[in-house]
Amino acid sequence: MSYQKVKGTLDFYGESSRKIRYVENKVRNIVKNYGFEEIITPIFEHTEVFVRSVGDSSDIVNKEMYTFTDKSDRSITLRPEGTAAVARCFVENKLYSTPEVKKYFYCGPMFRYERPQAGRYRQFNQFGIEVFGDSSPFLDTEVIVSAYRVFKALGIENIKLKINTIGDFKSRQDYAIALHDYFEKHLDSLCSDCKNRYEKNPMRILDCKVDRNSEVLLNAPKIKDFLTDESKEYFNKILKSLDVLKIPYETDESLVRGLDYYTDTVFEFVISGNSELNGLAICAGGKYAELIKGFGGPDIPGVGYAFGLERIVSVMEKNSLFPNLVNAVDVVIISLDEDSKIESLKIANELRDLGFNIDLDYKNFSFKPQFKLADRDKCKYIMIIGEEERKSGIYTIKDVLNKTEDKLSYDEIVKKLYN
Ligand code: HAM
After folding, report:
1. Which stretch of DSSP H or E encloses residue 371?
2. Atom 23 of ligand 1, nearest CA residue
3. What is the reported pTM?
4. Which of 114, 202, 256, 380 gets the highest tally of CB atoms within 10 A of its CB?
């Protein structure tokens, strides 16, 4: 039997693991400048956490969750997204007990049973942020701008910010009634999933992957005709502040997002001009005014987004945006007999303690294979230890780039490495 990874999952090693960590670290550094703090929640939760928040009319809950029963008969789900778990943690730990705005970020694997294709996996990594405690269009703008600045810092340009409002509770209630009335007349032309969505939440019909471009959907009532004055004003303030900050965007009234917890602002950064990934969201989010209350917490709104790290890596690869990520070796130590090999272990660790990256060969005593290792490592220096060097405490050190060679004591070598 040959063992293979599960369909829709990825292995990361060598370049690919360096790339995804590079992106993660860049994002971490940027969001830390905004005062975000890391929050780490379990990878699995009680299924109800996602059903209540993401919603039982969403594709995620209906079709895509990895749900199993544990040995005590609890229904457990591998997290398909981060917001619900962070909101659950916020409420359970009463993180709302002090009044300031709370800003969290998280990073890790999410699980969705989707049809695997370019940029769509069954285990993928999200880097997300969530802000709890304030309802302000300017906070929403700040959140969107932080994502925009991540893309700037990574050099990603071929993306479009799409933004919409799906209104407050009252707007959506009126809209849901209008959609219900409208789709009632067109039930026959909807796919079987949409017939279910019609019963549970007709707004979900609007992001159906099957019916999305059908006449019926294109002619459906638009949320903009049902927005309350407050929702309109809230959205206009976001657009105005994005204009002032010179953040390019497109309003897209068909954008409703596939998760039920959103209210008012929704947005996606979508990949453009990149054949395979064209149209896929690379970051998506929005405001959710009711989620904390839904988990039994106080009436505190939240807003956030999540990046798909694999998608960011793909876009950066396609546009050659990664710097050289080779983990540069400072010194390869070559040893010519057994006692020198032991000495090389000792010296390697002393130099590592000083922060240098050291590699050595564990088996060979001849030059040829050890020079080969130095060549593969593309190291800056080669240090040679043989019987003579061990006894005198004076080692041969070769500068690979400048092709020079010196005989130096350990202390002199350290000085050289620092220069
Ligand atoms: P989402 O749109 O479901 O939102 O996912 C956010 C991002 O995760 C997507 O834009 C995409 O880049 C990535 N992503 C989603 N599914 C996959 C997949 N199957 N394979 C690869 N990448 C994927 C959320 O998850 C919300 N929790 C975002 C949020 C945070 N809203 C408010 N706060």
Report:
1. helix 367-377
2. 308
3. 0.93
4. 202
Ligand 1, atom 2, lies closest to the CA of 284
Q: Which of 377, 374, 396, 375 is nearest to 385 (CA)?
A: 396
For ligand 1, what atom is nearest to the CA of residue 284?
Answer: 10
Decide whether any atom of ligand 1 lies within 6 Å of the 282 Cβ: yes
The pLDDT tens digits of the residues spanning 399-417 come to 999 999 999 999 999 999 9
| CATH entry 3.40.50.800 includes domain 331-418 | yes
- What's the gap in Å between 380 CA and the centre of ligand 1? 42
Cβ(164)–Cβ(251) below 8 Å: yes
Residue 161: strand pairing partners: 269
Runs of H (alpha helix) within 58-168: 59, 83-92, 137-154
Strand order of the sheet with strand 44-46?
Answer: 44-46, 75-78, 66-69
* Ligand 1 and 83: CB distance under 6 A: yes
Beta carbon of 284 within 6 Å of any ligand 1 atom:
yes
Write out pLDDT tens, residues 111-160. Answer: 999 999 999 999 999 999 999 999 999 999 999 999 999 999 999 999 99
Pocket of ligand 1 contains residue 147 by CB under 6 Å:
no
Question: Is the minimum distance from the CB of 126 to ligand 1 under 6 angstroms?
Answer: yes
CATH pick for 15-168+228-318 out of 3.60.40.10, 3.30.930.10, 3.30.70.2740, 1.10.8.80: 3.30.930.10
Q: Is 311 in the pocket of ligand 1 (CB under 6 A)?
A: yes
